[in-house]
Amino acid sequence: MPSTPPQQAKIARRGPGWKKLPISAALGYRWDGKRCRLWFQTRPGSYNDKRLIAFVCDLKKHLRGQAAILIWDGLSAHKSQKMKQYLESQRSWLQVEMLPGYSPDLNPVEDLWSTKVRNWPTAV
Fold it and tell me: Which of 75, 68, 114 shows the shortest CA–CA distance to 98?
Protein backbone atom coordinates (compact mmCIF):
# COMPACT_ATOMS: atom_id res chain seq x y z
CA MET A 1 0.00 0.00 0.00
CA PRO A 2 1.55 3.35 -0.96
CA SER A 3 1.82 5.94 1.74
CA THR A 4 1.72 9.69 1.58
CA PRO A 5 3.61 11.13 4.53
CA PRO A 6 3.38 14.59 5.95
CA GLN A 7 1.21 17.11 4.35
CA GLN A 8 1.26 20.49 5.96
CA ALA A 9 1.18 24.20 5.27
CA LYS A 10 4.45 26.10 5.21
CA ILE A 11 5.31 29.66 4.27
CA ALA A 12 8.26 30.30 1.97
CA ARG A 13 10.06 33.58 2.51
CA ARG A 14 12.84 34.87 0.32
CA GLY A 15 14.61 38.12 1.05
CA PRO A 16 13.33 41.66 1.54
CA GLY A 17 10.18 42.60 -0.33
CA TRP A 18 8.96 39.04 -0.74
CA LYS A 19 5.43 38.33 0.31
CA LYS A 20 4.41 35.15 2.09
CA LEU A 21 3.87 32.11 -0.10
CA PRO A 22 1.80 29.47 1.73
CA ILE A 23 2.63 25.97 0.50
CA SER A 24 0.95 22.66 1.23
CA ALA A 25 2.82 19.51 0.25
CA ALA A 26 2.67 15.73 0.29
CA LEU A 27 5.49 13.28 -0.26
CA GLY A 28 4.44 9.93 -1.67
CA TYR A 29 6.43 6.71 -1.40
CA ARG A 30 5.64 3.40 -3.05
CA TRP A 31 5.47 0.41 -0.73
CA ASP A 32 8.42 -1.18 -2.55
CA GLY A 33 10.58 1.98 -2.47
CA LYS A 34 10.82 2.22 -6.25
CA ARG A 35 9.40 5.71 -6.58
CA CYS A 36 8.94 8.90 -4.60
CA ARG A 37 6.68 11.77 -5.65
CA LEU A 38 6.02 15.29 -4.47
CA TRP A 39 2.66 17.03 -4.71
CA PHE A 40 2.35 20.64 -3.64
CA GLN A 41 0.06 23.64 -3.96
CA THR A 42 0.38 27.31 -3.24
CA ARG A 43 -2.65 29.41 -2.43
CA PRO A 44 -3.09 33.05 -1.48
CA GLY A 45 -3.77 33.62 2.20
CA SER A 46 -3.31 31.15 5.03
CA TYR A 47 -4.08 27.46 4.94
CA ASN A 48 -7.10 26.42 6.97
CA ASP A 49 -9.19 23.25 7.10
CA LYS A 50 -11.21 24.25 4.02
CA ARG A 51 -8.09 24.76 1.90
CA LEU A 52 -6.42 21.62 3.22
CA ILE A 53 -9.54 19.60 2.41
CA ALA A 54 -9.31 20.94 -1.15
CA PHE A 55 -5.66 19.82 -1.23
CA VAL A 56 -6.57 16.31 -0.05
CA CYS A 57 -9.34 16.16 -2.71
CA ASP A 58 -6.80 17.09 -5.38
CA LEU A 59 -4.36 14.54 -3.98
CA LYS A 60 -7.04 11.85 -4.25
CA LYS A 61 -7.45 12.67 -7.95
CA HIS A 62 -3.71 12.35 -8.52
CA LEU A 63 -3.57 9.01 -6.71
CA ARG A 64 -6.32 7.63 -8.99
CA GLY A 65 -7.93 5.40 -6.39
CA GLN A 66 -4.77 4.15 -4.71
CA ALA A 67 -4.85 3.84 -0.94
CA ALA A 68 -2.70 6.24 1.09
CA ILE A 69 -1.48 6.86 4.59
CA LEU A 70 -1.37 10.54 5.51
CA ILE A 71 0.99 11.48 8.33
CA TRP A 72 0.34 14.91 9.78
CA ASP A 73 1.88 17.21 12.33
CA GLY A 74 -0.02 19.25 14.90
CA LEU A 75 -1.21 22.10 12.67
CA SER A 76 -4.56 23.22 14.10
CA ALA A 77 -6.28 22.86 10.70
CA HIS A 78 -5.28 19.16 10.73
CA LYS A 79 -7.23 18.64 13.96
CA SER A 80 -10.36 20.75 13.44
CA GLN A 81 -13.80 19.21 13.77
CA LYS A 82 -14.52 19.90 10.11
CA MET A 83 -11.29 18.13 9.09
CA LYS A 84 -12.02 15.15 11.35
CA GLN A 85 -15.45 14.75 9.77
CA TYR A 86 -14.02 15.01 6.27
CA LEU A 87 -11.26 12.48 6.97
CA GLU A 88 -13.77 10.07 8.47
CA SER A 89 -15.68 10.16 5.16
CA GLN A 90 -12.45 9.30 3.26
CA ARG A 91 -11.55 6.14 5.18
CA SER A 92 -12.08 3.93 2.12
CA TRP A 93 -8.78 5.16 0.64
CA LEU A 94 -7.10 7.29 3.31
CA GLN A 95 -5.60 6.39 6.67
CA VAL A 96 -4.40 9.27 8.86
CA GLU A 97 -1.67 9.10 11.49
CA MET A 98 -0.63 12.05 13.63
CA LEU A 99 2.98 12.81 14.53
CA PRO A 100 3.78 13.42 18.19
CA GLY A 101 4.10 17.06 19.21
CA TYR A 102 7.39 18.87 18.56
CA SER A 103 8.81 16.18 16.27
CA PRO A 104 10.03 17.88 13.08
CA ASP A 105 12.78 15.25 12.83
CA LEU A 106 10.08 12.64 12.08
CA ASN A 107 8.54 14.78 9.33
CA PRO A 108 10.19 14.36 5.87
CA VAL A 109 8.49 17.51 4.57
CA GLU A 110 10.49 19.54 7.11
CA ASP A 111 13.70 18.40 5.40
CA LEU A 112 12.23 19.48 2.08
CA TRP A 113 11.51 22.96 3.43
CA SER A 114 14.89 23.35 5.09
CA THR A 115 16.80 22.62 1.86
CA LYS A 116 14.49 23.77 -0.94
CA VAL A 117 13.01 26.94 0.52
CA ARG A 118 16.46 28.17 1.46
CA ASN A 119 17.42 27.81 -2.22
CA TRP A 120 14.08 29.01 -3.59
CA PRO A 121 14.38 31.16 -6.74
CA THR A 122 14.14 34.91 -6.32
CA ALA A 123 10.92 35.00 -8.35
CA VAL A 124 8.13 32.46 -8.73
Answer: 75
Do 47 and 78 contact (CB within 8 A), yes or no? no
The β-bridge partners of 100 are: none
Q: What is the pLDDT of residues 55-105, one digit of tens each?
A: 999 999 998 878 888 888 878 888 899 999 999 999 999 998 888 877 778
pTM here is: 0.69
Domain boundaries, the chain: 8-102
Q: Tell me the CATH class for 8-102.
A: alpha beta
Cα 24 from Cα 46, distance rounded (Å): 10
Size of the chain, expressed as the number of residues it contains: 124
Read off φ and ψ for residue 54, nearest 5 degrees.
-60, -40
Which class for 67: exposed (0-12), middle (13-18), buried (19 or more C-beta within 10 A)?
middle
Distance between CA 67 and CA 16 in Å, rounded? Answer: 42
